[in-house]
Design goal:
Layout: H1 5-19, H2 22-25, E1 31-33, E2 36-37, H3 38-54, H4 62-71, H5 89-104, H6 109-117, H7 130-144
Antiparallel strand pairs: 1-2
Length: about 140
């Protein structure tokens, strides 16, 4: 599905609000999956989460969905380097990302849940909101792509 002009403008306006912050650009220095930077990964998850949500029959908070997706991996270390003590990354990084995001952004309850629960079912507590479920699913899909 392609976004129409109004949908694309909404998406770009929403991510640009996050992209204005200089800390976010540090994510471009870290590889997330394969050769994709963490920043590119986050933009991809936000974009495909938005497209997925547009096709769902639920009332969606699109702003929180996109912002939460943009910040779901907001951490600043190379998780692949096991020699530096980043063991159990899959379990730990959602909390680290949330703590980092809260330092720089005012977050809604949904945005916090999206960030904290995006690794479900690896992490035990399931997402509370449909927006969180969408980002969790799309994150795994984008990571494989």
């Amino acid at each position: 599905m392609n976004l129409n002009k109004q949908q694309m403008k909404f998406f770009l306006d929403t991510i640009n609000d996050i992209l204005k912050h200089p800390q976010v650009y540090k994510l471009d220095s870290y590889i997330q999956h394969g050769s994709v930077s963490r920043l590119s990964h986050s933009i991809g998850v936000a974009y495909y989460s938005y497209i997925t949500a547009l096709n769902m029959p639920f009332k969606i908070d699109f702003n929180s969905l996109i912002r939460g997706a943009m910040l779901h991996d907001f951490f600043f270390y190379d998780w692949r380097d096991k020699n530096k003590g980043f063991r159990w990354h899959g379990f730990k990084h959602p909390k680290i990302a949330l703590e980092n995001a809260q330092q720089y952004f005012d977050l809604t309850k949904k945005e916090k849940d999206i960030i904290l629960r995006h690794m479900w079912p690896l992490t035990v507590i399931p997402p509370k909101y449909i927006e969180s479920m969408i980002v969790s699913f799309v994150d795994k899909t984008v990571s494989v792509m």
